[in-house]
Amino acid sequence: MKKPAIIFAFLFISISIIQAQTIIENPEKPLSKNAGRVLKLKEVIRITDKSGDYYFKYPHNLKVAHDGSLFFKDEEQILKCSSKGEFIKNYFKKGQGPGEISGWNYPSALHNDEIYVYDSNPRKIIHFDKGGNLIEEFSFKLEGYRNFFGILDGCFIFIKNIYPPFEERKSQLHDVKHIIFLVSNDGKIERENPVFPVKQFFGQNYGKSWAPFVTVISEDNKWLYIYHTCEYMIDLLDIKKGEVIRSFNRKYPRIKYTIKSPREEEFAKKYNAPIKKFENDISGLHLCKGLLWVKTSTKDKNKGDLFDVFNEEGQYINNFYINLKGSLMGVHEDSIFVLETDEDENFQIVKYKIIDGT
To answer: pLDDT per residue over 332-344, tens digit each?
Structure first.
């Protein structure tokens, strides 16, 4: 290759990197004139395990189908309920046969209202139809995949974590590489996306999270919003292209960190682990009607948790408070789903309708 061609190629690569790393800086206040209000909610459904058809240990990973049916997971349970919260089916069947799940880690995805489950122990994808009947399975020889996001253009979207070698874990912070892959149904890697480093504290035989890795995927599985630092910064990944097409933040007054328990303080002293100065600026990401809801670390004792709202271009357009009695599981159209506990500390999933718009 001639020298001018080399220079041109270098400039092209450099420009591509710069474009991929463009950061949209937003001000501290959003564009909306009614920002800062408290969302008004009305309870619609309360789902409990009192029927005995299933049990709640810690329900999570809630998904909503197009007909309003609800899917969520618990220990050795993948549950489907009607739009009214009535129990329909438990997809989980323990074992190693067709349609059975043997691993302890089995992330699932909803695609065209059908459920796909990744069993990490024999490493296979199990595909169920809307009625919970087995359609097919795909086995993989690939190792080390921690999570499964969904399907894009016939490929499975996986994430893999790459940890530092044991001999390098000397009571310090390390970058754990998080990589998103597109994998065909025969196990071939079709695309490897950018690396997202996440800080984690490691000793020789122990580890402790430092920075979070919070994601939410678009309904069509084309876009993945990623938060992987302690400070306010969100990356938008185009999964098919394998590019971060934009990063965005907003000026955010950080919240001083408070030690969560005596055990955390004992761990820090015993292993010489660092203690944060500030809380993670973001604790959750949710998508609602094409807008990104960002749960921040800001709390008001009367108003509740502060949520920021961004449009697809990364502009900070609104914010509001939600006075939650539990933790937000998901958002769908004009409703939110909250995991709450009753007076006996039993879990319940509660659907609230937003009655004053978002």
So the answer is: 999 999 999 999 9
Strands of 53-166 (E only): list them.
60-64, 70-74, 77-81, 87-90, 108-111, 114-119, 124-128, 134-139, 145-152, 155-162
**How much is the pTM?**
0.91
Strand-pairing partners, residue 43, are: 352
Per DSSP bridges, beta strands 327-332 and 282-288 are unpaired
What gap in Å lies between CA 316 and CA 136, rounded to an integer? 43
How many domains, in total, are found in the chain? 1
Range of the domain at 206: 3-354
CATH number for the domain that contains residue 48: 2.120.10.30
Please tell me the distance from the alpha carbon of residue 93 to that of residue 76, in angstroms, as a whole number: 8
| R_g over Cα of the chain | 22
The order of strands in the sheet holding 234-238 is: 23-26, 243-250, 234-238, 223-227, 214-217
CA distance 301 to 323: 9
Tell me the per-residue pLDDT of 31-87, one tens digit each, with 9 for 90 and over: 999 899 999 999 999 999 999 999 999 999 999 999 999 999 999 999 999 999 999
